[in-house]
Specification:
By secondary structure, the protein is an alpha/beta fold. The protein has helices at 27-35, 50-57, 89-105, 114-122, 165-170, 229-246, and strands spanning 4-8, 10-12, 22-24, 39-43, 62-65, 109-112, 127-128, 154-156, 158-160, 178-180, 185-186, 193-199, 204-209, 214-217. Helix 3 (89-105) links the parallel strand 5 and strand 6.
């Protein structure tokens, strides 16, 4: 039986796809899971208790959190920056609750971009709300000029901690470039997380937990995973881990 991967769905506004609000998951994420041998199942966003979230996730072999718009700054005790965009507290609370439940039950988890930021906030961490406004602006492009209007990310190099879950996932592959599409980044790490990859400007590009296979990436491996074996290898390792946990 294929490992079942819970993909935290996202609430989207009505429009071209439907006259009603939609719950959706990005195709590139689903395709990367399928190539890795998993079966992705989108979980509809809703209000969840910690206990019910654990019950839902108990039916699955892994959890995937996608990229997307900004997390509500109120969740880490800040006021919104003028460039904060797309906030929907329903999505934030739903994904944060799933993160905590997954960690509690030891469910393998892969969190991408916004997913990493949600996970960090879910465990008491904070975010830099707009990298361009830092006292020492980064010389690394973490998103396209005019973000978020252009839809494709930009490449930059990263350094990965040897011996980390991420390094093991790459399994000897050369360190791939980060495909980045974000204007925020992790500031204070959430409880239980350790940084395991960095951009050349020092910003955290990956973090993980020591109490299970819980890996968070600030970049988007799924963007080029169809043609870059190193990026696909991250999804492969995630799905392999879900199968190992089930066995």
């Amino acid at each position: 039986m294929l490992p079942l991967i819970a993909v935290a769905g996202r609430i989207g506004a009505r429009g071209k796809v439907s006259r009603l609000e939609v719950s959706f998951a990005g195709r590139r994420y689903l395709d990367a899971v399928i190539r890795a041998g998993g079966e992705p199942v989108t979980i509809a966003p809703r209000e969840l208790s910690d206990e019910f979230a654990a019950q839902i996730l108990g039916r699955f072999d892994g959890l995937l959190l996608m990229g997307g718009s900004d997390v509500d700054p109120a969740m880490y005790d800040q006021e919104p920056h003028p460039r904060t965009y797309g906030v929907d507290r329903r999505n934030d609370e739903f994904e944060a609750t799933l993160c905590r439940a997954a960690a509690r039950i030891g469910l393998p988890t892969l969190a991408i971009c916004r997913g990493m930021q949600v996970a960090n906030v879910a465990f008491g961490g904070s975010l830099h709300q707009h990298l361009a406004d830092l006292e020492v602006p980064s010389q690394v492009a973490h998103g396209p000029h005019g973000f978020p209007s252009p839809l494709e990310g930009v490449e930059h190099s990263i350094e990965i901690a040897p011996g980390s879950l991420l390094a093991k996932a790459l399994n000897g592959c050369d360190v791939p470039p980060a495909i980045s599409y974000h204007h925020q980044a992790v500031d204070r790490l959430g409880s239980g997380f350790t940084a395991t990859a960095w951009a050349t400007d020092g910003h955290v590009e990956a973090m993980e937990r020591s109490d299970g296979w819980f890996v968070c990436l600030q970049w988007h491996p799924e963007d080029t995973a169809h043609s870059d074996p190193a990026q696909q290898r991250i999804y492969d390792a995630f799905v392999e881990q879900t199968g190992a946990e089930r066995d």
